[in-house]
Specification:
Blueprint lengths: L1 H29 L23 E2 L5 E7 L4 E7 L3 E10 L11 E7 L5 E2 L1 E3 L3 E3 L6 E8 L16 E11 L8 E12 L18 H9 L33 H23 L13
Parallel strand pairs: 1-3
Antiparallel strand pairs: 2-11, 3-10, 4-9, 4-11, 5-6, 5-8, 5-10, 7-9
Helix pairs in contact: 1-3
């Protein structure tokens, strides 16, 4: 009877501790949601280079008007543990105004301007002769907290989206189009977590800002702080995680609790009921 009560008490304590740990993990994971606040307005234009890329937050839908042959650039922040997906829609002019179809393509680059490969998605698509729009998508690999210098793994920082027509005939150039771009992320969690961390996220312009703050007697033009030289400075709403938290903490702690319960249960089952009443104390 005593053993049963002990095991029941230990089981209740373990279940309570496990529930608390899982609740904490859910709270931490929820703090890294990729949605954007309704107060922020999505950009209605696109940049024409990496340096002038328009910043867009995850969950926003950026729009822009352009002409076929233009290069359109946007930038967005991605943190460790996220798996970003970029979706783009190009709305084409009337089919009578375009004699032939063009091939549209999106490419994603990291903060070091290394092109990142897509896990899946339609990264390039040719517009049919009677098509009114072209849909593209690219799902990146999970952003890692750290990587070898020779690797091309996605790392926390700024990412750039480039949308353009890859193939055009002379008759296709200069036709008006409109584009929509949206970035969302899936929180992958500790299944892709590795040891290590970056000293700082790969956000271009951070060293330039530090240098500008250190030299007070240098003009804005010399510091490269003019509007046409502004670099991406966006970051997640809750800041950069730097890889200090993952749900592996929850499962490690839960494993420790379960191991302790197993030890208590094993001891309770094997210790017996003590000295038999028929055996004298001196024996």
């Amino acid at each position: 009877m005593r053993t049963t009560k002990l095991l029941a008490t230990a089981g209740l304590l373990g279940a309570s501790a496990l529930t608390a740990l899982l609740g904490a993990g859910t709270a931490f994971a929820g703090s890294g949601d990729s949605g954007s606040s309704g107060d922020d307005k999505a950009p209605t234009e696109a940049g024409t280079s990496f340096r002038t890329a328009q910043e867009v937050k995850q969950g926003q839908q950026a729009t822009a008007g352009a002409s076929t042959g233009d290069y359109l650039y946007w930038s967005f922040p991605a943190d460790a543990g996220q798996r970003p997906t970029v979706k783009a829609t190009v709305k084409l002019p009337d089919s009578a105004a375009r004699p032939s179809g063009a091939t549209w393509r999106i490419d994603v680059y990291d903060g070091l301007r290394r092109r990142q490969s897509c896990m899946y998605g339609t990264q390039s698509r040719a517009a049919a002769a009677d098509a009114t729009s072209v849909d593209l998508s690219c799902t990146l690999r999970t952003v890692r907290v750290w990587s070898e210098q020779w690797a091309n793994d996605p790392l926390p920082g700024t990412y750039y989206v480039r949308l353009t027509a890859a193939t055009l005939t002379p008759s296709d150039q200069g036709l008006p189009v409109s584009a929509e771009v949206e970035v969302t992320s899936k929180e992958v969690g500790g299944s892709s977590t590795v040891d290590g961390s970056l000293a700082a996220p790969l956000v271009p312009g951070s060293t330039t800002e530090e240098a500008a703050a250190a030299s007070d007697d240098t003009s804005d033009e010399e510091n490269g702080s003019s509007a046409d030289q502004a670099l991406a400075k966006s970051e997640p709403e809750d800041g950069w995680s730097s890889g200090w938290w993952s749900d592996r903490w929850v499962w490690t702690a839960a494993g420790g609790v379960l191991a302790a319960l197993a030890g208590i249960g094993g001891y309770a089952l094997t210790r017996g009921t003590g000295r038999p009443s028929r055996v004298p104390p001196g024996m």
